[in-house]
Design brief:
The protein is of the alpha+beta class. 40% of the residues lie in helices and 16% in strands. It has four domains: 100 residues, 2-Layer Sandwich (Phosphorylase Kinase, domain 1); 214 residues, Aminoglycoside 3'-phosphotransferase, Chain: A, domain 2 (Alpha-Beta Complex), CATH 3.90.1200.10; 210 residues, Aspartate Aminotransferase, domain 2, CATH 3.40.640; 110 residues, Alpha-Beta Complex (Aspartate Aminotransferase, domain 1), CATH 3.90.1150. It is elongated. The protein binds 4'-deoxy-4'-aminopyridoxal-5'-phosphate.
Length: 766
């Protein structure tokens, strides 16, 4: 495209004639200088920009202009037909859309640091005034996302792999993780039209004053706070005391538009996320054109900044940013973990266990993250209770609304109770049609045992080695994990019969074939025969968590159920840990086997953390129980709030496709772990289904449980802010059962950290 053509095209559209010079930068911008010294900028629209977007920019610029801010802006000059953009014939294959803007004089802020405190305050004022002028504009073309959309920064997370250096990748992972933990809050703070790119090249200074703002091209509907975060991300880069400088900007902003404590909390994660996005985009661009210097102006500075400030305590930074304003971010952080631990020791029993040698204090939960009192997110890889994500807004709202309307018990007719029971029952095979609602997995298992006893008239219970089913006296008696564990009384009660764990890796029968499953099933038959007594029930988890994340081989339950039913017993499957879509392929784990249990026990994920338990059984079993004549009542079981929350959990599983997500993310996780297994001989087995996985760690012989190693891995992961635990009789299995909202990027992070830990263990380094 020749400059002569551009000159002519500009004259044709705007009746002005001047010399043409291409401006530096990413976009196709040209400076038009008239003979009288007046300047304009011709902007050629990129292929993806539409007239609507151009119109939106125009509306945004005019709104800021109208607000009387007093800085020069790239105001649009309509063409002689009054249109915001003209179709220009400037050579090339087809005409181009172009617009003429008023030239904004001044020097870019970039390269001027350190700047005066007054200028920083002025910047804060300006960003807030932008927010005031823009945020109420609602325009369809604003509801888009683009590469630099800070509210969608997570989409760049998987590109971390383009960065070769391990430390740098970890640094980026930290930023994206903090962003992911903040995303839920980001969705709740005020949003509106923002400039979208108030970076240090778009802020112009003359004589030490802010005199102009450029480039509204990235404007979009976003959390309003993003404009402040984006600007800070750039102007703080070269400041010797960035947070002190940032506090000035925040002070200036707060004077015009009051920040909330939540917005203050979000600033640091957003500032760092913006830099991480910039770095990832640079890494992508290097693959396209490593020579194009304009693409990398921020790169070195951003790395230096993140290296120094990218792994700080968010509460410290928020405090520093808020130092000059009367607002205390993180109002809920409370005392230190050590203080709390001391008070806990004084007020609770030492029997109440606590995780990790360095216990963690949490003040908030978001999605797959728990956030400590220093604002640092921990990736939660094993708390299966918060099934649809910690503090899921839909669940929270359902509970709050129901609590405000009605909360009563099942002695009255309530829609909440019956609607929920119906919805739950509909998720089961038709034979399982009667629902009892309780308050915990323990209570549900207790009731299940009573139902079995009522229906069969028998007492004896078959349980699996190392199983855990609850904490009451009766359930401890049927939980080998407890009665054979520390403080247990050793041998089972005479009415409890322990059957082998169907573990194809370590158990008596090896493999995961149907033959193995049948062999383990027949072992239950042998136990029944040896006992020589009538059986009330077989009680087992469908997949055995305490047993070591064991997946029973095919044919197992089919065989067991046959033996148990022949002995007059009923079959109870405890799906407290594995139900509600966790296994991915099915909603209930038992559906992967060709069986229908007589009683199913539910807990943990059912209420996403709200205490709910449930028993679902056949009509016949319920009738036998009714025939005893004793009423069934649980004060809180089935209360209106619990039912509303239970409904909301099912809503989220449906709405967010979490069962399918568990299937795909679980398969991705499984494959990544198998890859790791190939590189580390201390991994003896990877097993699992969906997002219920186990990593079996072994000694050099390939089979002896590596208990100490597993314990150490869990502790080191905790120091890396990843939460897991061990399970299995030898406590050598790392258990993985995260909230179902965990992402592939979270999985990558876990696998990568585990790889590093195991590598260090092997080489003795670090
Ligand atoms: N069954 C299983 C399989 C469990 O894992 C648990 C709890 N860990 C329970 C029952 C008991 O549930 P709760 O703690 O809700 O009483």
């Amino acid at each position: 495209m020749s400059h002569q053509k551009i000159t002519d095209a500009v004259e044709a559209a705007w009746d002005i004639r001047g010399s043409v010079r291409r401006l530096a930068g990413e976009n196709e911008n040209f400076l038009i200088e008239l003979s009288d010294g007046e300047h304009f900028v011709l902007k050629l629209a990129s292929e993806d920009s539409s007239r609507e977007r151009i119109l939106l920019e125009h509306v945004g610029v005019e709104a800021v202009f109208e607000s009387g801010l007093g800085v020069a802006l790239p105001r649009l000059v309509p063409d002689h037909e009054g249109s915001v953009a003209a179709t220009l014939d400037i050579g090339g294959n087809s005409p181009r859309l172009g617009r003429l803007l008023q030239f904004v004089p001044g020097d870019a802020w970039g390269g001027k640091a350190p700047v005066s405190p007054d200028l920083l305050t002025e910047l804060g004022n300006l960003i807030a005034q932008f927010s005031r002028a823009l945020s109420s504009i609602d325009h369809p073309a604003a509801h888009i996302s683009h590469n630099w959309d800070l509210a969608a920064a997570g989409t760049h997370r998987s590109s971390i792999r383009l960065v070769a250096d391990n430390n740098r990748r970890r640094l980026l992972a930290t930023q994206f993780e903090r962003w992911a933990a903040a995303a839920q809050d980001l969705a709740t703070v005020p949003a509106g039209l923002i400039h979208g790119d108030l970076n240090d090249e778009n802020l112009l200074i003359s004589d030490g004053k802010l005199t102009g703002v450029l480039d509204f091209g990235d404007c979009l509907h976003n959390p309003i706070i993003c404009d402040l975060a984006i600007s800070l991300a750039y102007v703080l880069l070269d400041e010797p005391n960035p947070w002190q400088a940032g506090a000035r900007v925040v002070e200036g902003y707060h004077a015009i538009r009051e920040l909330s404590t939540l917005e203050l909390e979000l600033l640091y994660p957003l500032i760092c996320a913006r830099l991480a996005v910039s770095l990832v985009i640079s890494a992508k661009r290097r693959q396209i054109d490593p020579e194009r210097a304009a693409w990398y102006v921020t790169e070195a500075r951003a790395w230096a900044f993140l290296k120094q400030h990218g792994d700080s305590d968010p509460t410290d930074i928020a405090d520093q940013l808020a130092a000059l304003i009367d607002l205390r971010p993180y109002p809920d952080r409370g005392g230190s973990p050590s203080e709390l631990l001391a008070s806990r020791g004084a007020v609770t029993s030492a029997a109440q266990s606590i995780s990790y040698s360095n216990p963690v204090k949490f003040v908030k939960g978001r999605g797959a993250y728990l956030i400590d009192e220093r604002g640092r997110p921990f990736l939660d890889m094993y708390n299966n209770v918060c099934h649809v994500g910690h503090c899921h807004p839909h669940v929270v709202q359902a509970g709050q609304q129901q609590m405000a309307r009605l909360n009563t018990n099942t002695r009255y007719l309530t829609d909440a109770h019956i609607a929920y029971a119906e919805r739950l029952a509909a998720l089961f095979p038709s034979a399982l049609c009667t629902v009892f609602l309780l308050n915990s997995g323990t209570e549900a298992n207790e009731l299940a045992l009573r139902l079995a006893n009522a229906h069969t008239g028998h007492e004896d219970i078959l349980v699996v080695e190392n199983a855990y089913h609850g904490h009451t006296r009766k359930l401890i008696d049927v939980s080998p994990y407890k009665f054979l564990g520390p403080g247990g009384k050793g041998s089972p009660e005479s009415w409890v019969h322990v059957v082998p764990v169907p573990d194809g890796h370590r158990g008596v029968y090896k493999g995961d074939t149907r033959e193995t499953g049948i062999a383990y099933g027949d072992a239950v038959g042998s136990t029944i025969q040896a006992a020589g007594r009538s059986i009330a029930a077989f009680l087992a988890e469908t997949l055995l968590s305490c047993g070591g994340q064991i997946i029973p081989p095919p044919g197992y339950f089919e065989t067991v159920f046959r033996h148990v039913r022949a002995a007059g017993g009923v079959c109870i499957l405890d799906e407290v840990q594995v139900g509600f879509g966790r296994v991915g392929s099915h909603f209930w784990a038992f559906e992967a086997y060709d069986v229908v249990p007589d009683i199913v026990v539910l807990g943990k994920p059912i209420g996403n953390g709200h205490p709910i338990g449930a028993v679902v059984c056949t009509r016949e079993i319920a009738q036998s129980f009714e025939a005893l004549g004793m009423e069934f009542f649980s004060t809180f079981g089935g209360n209106s709030v619990a039912c509303a929350i239970g409904q909301s959990v099912l809503d989220v599983i449906d709405n967010e496709g979490l069962q399918e997500h568990a299937r795909t993310t679980g398969a991705y996780f499984f494959d990544a772990l198998c890859e790791l297994e190939r590189n580390h001989t201390c991994i003896g087995d990877i097993r699992g289904r969906g997002l219920f996985l186990g990593i079996d760690l072994v000694e050099h012989d390939g089979i002896t449980p590596a208990t100490a190693l597993a314990g150490k891995v869990v502790e080191v992961l905790r120091e890396r802010r990843i939460l897991t635990g061990t399970d299995g009789p030898s406590k050598n299995v790392i258990k993985i059962k995260p909230p179902l909202v965990v992402t592939q990027a979270d999985v990558d992070r876990f696998v990568w950290e585990l790889d590093l830990i195991l590598h260090r263990e092997r080489t003795g380094s670090g």
